[in-house]
Design brief:
heterodimer; A: two-stranded antiparallel ribbon; B: alpha+beta; SH3 type barrels; 3 helices; 6 strands; 39% strand; cell membrane (chain A)
């Protein structure tokens, strides 16, 4: 790093507006990665100060204290102390405090003051403080703390001007720490009495909103409505975009087909790479809409309220209220769900959430459920009101949720941990989400999804393509080409394993390309049954073939299989990314496979006995 | 659990758990449930220190768990086992 570069780090309590300030300072010049060896997000960006000097800024995880109680708080402590390997100690710490919550936030500032690093205090959200009638005497605060104080409004354009200008001046000397053993709370109260006048303890509007949103009945009803709206949006808004992506991939495939001669290269590009990438990218619209909701709910302050309402329900199963959103997201796709577990600070609760997330019925399972239900479950009415097909679909979803709770409970017993897990969750003031912060957050998620997961998926889809394409069928072959390939041979070889649960060799073969993504199994079945058609058309053509050739127990067994089966490389890749542990991936895949086999076995045997 | 013993240490003291909703109270202490209790230390860092005013603002829909507690300018959701550590006295 050249001497001309200034390295600063933003530190502060959670909910102090630190990330908004970081976004305002750096715009899109951000790099998001992980700290070496842990899954705590490392956000770094750069901007130019008042003199045009490059400032490199690190957005450290929010923390209440340097006495860390979670991995992300430990990162903040270690970087501030210069104990983090590969992370030079910052030249300057910018302590960010919310001007409407000084009593809590200044205590941490006094703790940081002891570190002996040059410091600045960014008094953030001064606009809100003014609106609430909080009067802060900046000069007195500055004198009391012994560090320069600048006012910032992170949500307003130009709101960081004072900070950027101050950074252009000479570094302030390290502040004089308070004498050892000082009661920090008393010191904060003394500062506040000296420099701040405030009329009311909290915003009245928060009281009024909380009275409704946290009401035992209305609160839960509103939460249900919000979740319903979110799912409507994920499935209906994404539809045209997904259609567009599919059309684009199909068009690209045709273009490549027209350009290249028949052969291995063409097959690799069209059937391997394009189909593989297309199969993953097609979920991007759903994932972005889902994250738009999650980010907006988080920014507005509603997410911790949802965690508050649901905590008790989740604790019984060894989870936490914070697990709710990741698990809910997993109904669209387990990949964003697993990515969203970053908001769970407790490592064990986070791991439990990651491990059960694949049990939530994701949208990729729907094409398979739809195909099998249409082929095997009669469309009759039961008990006068319910459609039998709908009931079966509901039962499949319910089975996923029930087994997730059961698995989490078993894991809780397994650990037999005497350690108490705490909630201690701050419910911040409500605020309107800022469009710029939402856009930056979405961009970040999209990049993570495409780059981190995309690489592994691409590699694996190419491998699966090779397995399904080689060796080529001999001259004059009559059976479908896949039958002669490694995948076909593997399918036949695996038949002894799957025969007890009623799978025929066609299903065994389809399971292999279906590893790339669950819904690929539908088109794979079509290939095995020698149909050449796209997914949607394949399902229509397949329905009569399947209902003629499969027994009902086999179909039910395959349905039960898909409730549990870990057949999604993207999910396993996401687990690997978020836990940095192949062992966890093996545990997840192993237990899901065992459950799938058990469930299919029981379903098949029971169905045979009753049929 | 050492709640009974802790409560008796203060003539007027009671656990935050037993505080009726919306009633103002003053923090007396935060009891360690075991030596070096991390949760108790964190509660003190969050502002549960002697003299601070607290109020239970809301309760979770199932079994009144967790509690939403206002301390200073901030609201925290505390599970019952966490709130139990906080000893308060009601204001006259």
């Amino acid at each position: 790093m050249s001497a001309a570069t200034l390295r600063i780090a933003l530190v502060g309590n959670p909910n102090c507006g630190k990330t908004a300030l970081f976004n305002r300072l750096t715009g899109s010049r951000q790099k998001v990665a992980n700290y070496a060896g842990v899954t705590v997000e490392r956000k770094e960006g750069r901007f130019a100060d008042g003199n045009g000097r490059v400032v490199q800024v690190l957005d450290l995880p929010g923390t209440y204290s340097l006495a860390a109680t979670s991995p992300d708080e430990a990162i903040t402590r270690d970087v501030c102390l210069g104990r983090m390997a590969g992370e030079p100690r910052p030249d300057l710490l910018v302590c960010v405090v919310d001007a409407t919550n000084l009593r809590l936030h200044l205590r941490f500032v006094l703790e940081v003051q002891r570190l002996g690093l040059p410091m600045l205090l960014a008094l953030n959200c001064t606009d809100l403080a003014e609106k609430r009638g909080i009067r802060i005497d900046r000069d007195r605060l500055q004198a009391g703390l012994g560090i320069p104080v600048v006012e910032t409004v992170a949500v307003r354009s130009g709101g960081t001007q004072a900070l950027v200008q101050r950074l252009g001046q000479a570094l302030p000397p390290p502040p004089k720490p308070l004498p050892e053993g000082t009661d920090l709370h008393a010191a904060v109260n003394h500062l506040l009495a000296d420099a701040v006048r405030m009329p009311r303890r909290t915003a009245e509007i928060d009281d009024r909103i909380d009275r409704v949103l946290l009401h035992p009945v209305w609160g839960l009803a509103i939460l249900a409505a919000v979740m319903f709206l979110m799912f409507q949006a994920v499935f209906s808004w994404a539809e045209p975009l997904m259609g567009g992506i599919e059309a684009l991939v199909g068009w690209a495939g045709q273009g490549v087909s027209a350009l290249l001669p028949e052969g291995v290269l063409k097959s690799l590009l069209v059937d391997g790479i394009l189909a593989g990438i297309g199969g993953v990218v097609v979920f991007l619209p759903q994932i972005l809409i889902l994250f738009l909701f999650i980010l907006a709910l988080e920014e507005s302050g509603y997410l911790p309220r949802a965690a508050f309402l649901l905590d008790r329900f989740m604790v019984g199963a060894g989870l936490t209220g914070r697990s709710f959103i990741p698990l809910l997201s997993s109904f669209a796709c387990a990949v964003p769900g697993i990515m969203a577990t970053r908001s769970i600070q407790d490592p064990r609760e986070r791991l439990a959430t990651i491990l059960v997330a694949p049990l939530m019925t994701c949208s990729a399972r729907l094409p398979i459920y739809a195909l099998l239900i249409a082929a095997f479950i009669p469309a009759q009415t039961v008990w006068g009101v319910f459609n039998l097909q709908g009931l079966v679909l509901f039962a499949l979803y319910a089975a996923g949720i029930a087994s997730a709770l059961a698995v989490a409970t078993v894991m809780k017993w397994w650990r037999r941990s005497k350690l108490e897990h705490s909630l201690l969750l701050e419910l911040p003031s409500y605020r309107l989400p800022n469009a710029r912060d939402l856009a930056l957050g979405l961009w970040e998620r999209a990049v993570i999804f495409l780059k981190r997961v995309g690489g592994i998926i691409l590699a694996l889809t190419v491998i699966l393509w090779a397995l399904s394409s080689f060796p080529a069928p001999p001259e004059g072959a009559t059976a479908p080409a896949i039958d002669y390939s490694f995948a076909g041979q593997l399918g036949h070889a695996l038949q002894w394993l799957f025969a007890p649960i009623g799978f025929n060799w066609q299903i065994c073969i389809a399971l292999i390309p279906g590893l790339a993504a669950r819904e690929v199994a539908v088109s794979a079945l079509a290939t095995v049954y020698a149909l050449s058609a796209t997914d949607d058309a394949a399902a229509e053509l397949l329905t009569p073939i399947l209902s003629a050739q499969w027994s009902l127990p086999t179909a039910l067994s395959l349905l039960a299989w898909y409730v549990f089966a870990p057949q999604c490389i993207s999910t396993l890749a996401a687990i690997r990314r978020e836990t940095l542990s192949w062992r966890t991936v093996a545990i997840a895949a192993g237990y899901l496979f065992a459950l799938a086999y058990l469930a299919s076995f029981l379903t098949y045997r029971l169905a045979l006995a009753f049929a | 659990m050492t709640i009974a013993k802790d409560s008796s240490a203060f003539a007027n003291g009671r656990s935050l758990l037993t505080l009726p909703r919306q009633q103002e109270a003053r923090v007396l202490s935060v009891a360690d449930h075991r030596p070096g209790d991390v949760i108790a230390r964190r509660l003190r860092e969050l502002g549960f220190v002697p003299g601070e005013l607290v109020r239970v603002v809301a309760q979770g829909p199932l079994g009144g768990d967790p509690l939403l507690v206002q301390v200073g300018f901030t609201r925290f959701a505390l599970r019952r086992a966490e709130a139990e550590r906080v000893q308060v006295e009601t204001l006259p």
